[in-house]
Design brief:
The chain has 360 residues and is an alpha/beta fold. The chain is built from eight helices and 14 strands. The strands form two sheets. Strands 4-3-2-1-12-13-14 form a seven-stranded mixed beta sheet, with helices on one face. The longest helix has 30 residues. It is globular. The termini are far apart.
């Protein structure tokens, strides 16, 4: 082998050795560098029933609120007009949940979980992708004319109908980060029992109160107090019957007696109801009660209610003032974040009828 040839061999060996060193160095660095990881999230706080998970934390929660809608294709077609407007709005608004104020199925509720009215008056009406979200269902007096348990059990058969019990709660989490996490608590009441289990009045005609005792009412009120006493940034209570109302059926004495004191005691922000087929915003006149707002969202499609009915106990409205009332079909939208709640009423033409904001 010549000197020149030997030199070439040595150069090749040196090049090969350097390449091995470089590969070994990269592997060492790879083994010592760990991928960055965020701090582990603490376990989700447990509040009441229907607790959300961390995957459901948002900077804001958007609700739609609608009541007294379940008329279907029979007596009236207005339900579909409202549904079309609701769909158009929801396609842009992208709600997280719908709050239903009750009277989900007119006029005598359902007979069983297989009742075709579930399809005719709900599933086949609200079909858009934007409305395939949890609908938090409330029992109305017409629902309580039928098989109440069937409406509860139907939760297991529907992708959007949500009524895990006759009364229940669900929490939503808002916040830019875990350290700023806050809770929106929604309580859904069995107002049929609160209004009609212990007394008889014109609202209770035909209502199925079998098996509903004073003990059931007492336990529900104890549960309401327990849920409202737990920490939450915003507290929203939903019931079918109004506490105060300046149109239609008017105020409800039993709700004033049983529920109003708890709403005031625990600084509830919103009480939402249906039963009166119109749109209203009511507040108490006393300055110290200004946190609490009452919204009637009963314009979902059934016959509208105008002036107070002759049977209404209008004098019970004396502590309250009406800030807005309109005999109109429509629905409400709510945007809830850490700073406040923005509430709007909308009609079937997509026109904004009213806007109100609550600030922390």
């Amino acid at each position: 082998m010549t000197i020149i040839e030997s030199k070439h061999v040595y150069q090749l060996l040196a090049f090969f050795f350097i390449a091995l060193l470089l590969l070994w160095s990269q592997q060492v660095n790879h083994d010592n560098i760990q991928p960055s990881r965020s701090a582990p999230r603490p376990a989700a706080k447990q509040y009441g029933t229907g607790v959300t998970t961390h995957s459901e934390i948002h900077s804001e929660i958007r609700f739609l609120a609608i009541g007294d809608w379940g008329s279907g294709n029979g007596e009236l077609h207005e339900q579909k007009l409202v549904a079309q407007s609701l769909t158009t709005f929801a396609d842009t608004f992208a709600p997280h949940s719908v709050l239903s104020m009750g009277d989900n199925i007119y006029s005598f509720g359902v007979s069983s979980t297989k009742d075709p009215q579930f399809a005719d008056k709900f599933e086949n009406v609200y079909t858009s992708k934007s409305l395939q979200i949890p609908w938090l269902m409330t029992l109305g007096n017409h629902d309580c004319n039928g098989n109440i348990d069937a409406e509860v059990e139907y939760t297991k058969q529907s992708n959007k109908w949500y009524m895990p019990a006759r009364y229940y709660s669900k929490d939503y989490k808002i916040g830019k980060g875990l350290d700023e996490e806050t809770v929106i608590r929604v309580l859904v009441l069995d107002a049929c029992a609160l209004t009609c289990a212990l007394t008889t009045n014109y609202r209770c005609e035909g209502m199925n109160m079998s098996g509903i005792s004073k003990d059931y009412v007492t336990k529900q009120l104890q549960w309401v107090e327990e849920m409202l006493s737990k920490p939450a940034k915003w507290k929203i209570v939903v019931g079918h019957f109004p506490i105060f109302s300046f149109l239609g059926n008017g105020p409800t004495s039993q709700m004033i007696e049983f529920v109003l004191p708890l709403l005031l005691k625990y600084s509830v922000d919103l009480y939402l109801n249906g039963h009166d087929h119109n749109l209203q915003h009511v507040k108490l006149a006393a300055p110290q009660t200004q946190r609490l707002n009452f919204f009637v969202c009963g314009g979902g499609g059934y016959k509208l209610h105008g002036i107070l009915k002759p049977a209404a106990e209008g004098s019970l409205n004396s502590p309250a003032v009406s800030l807005f009332n309109k005999t109109s079909f429509g629905f409400a939208s709510l945007v809830v974040n850490q700073q406040g709640i923005n509430m709007n009423f909308w009609d079937t033409q997509g026109t904004k009828l009213y806007e109100y904001s609550i600030r922390d």
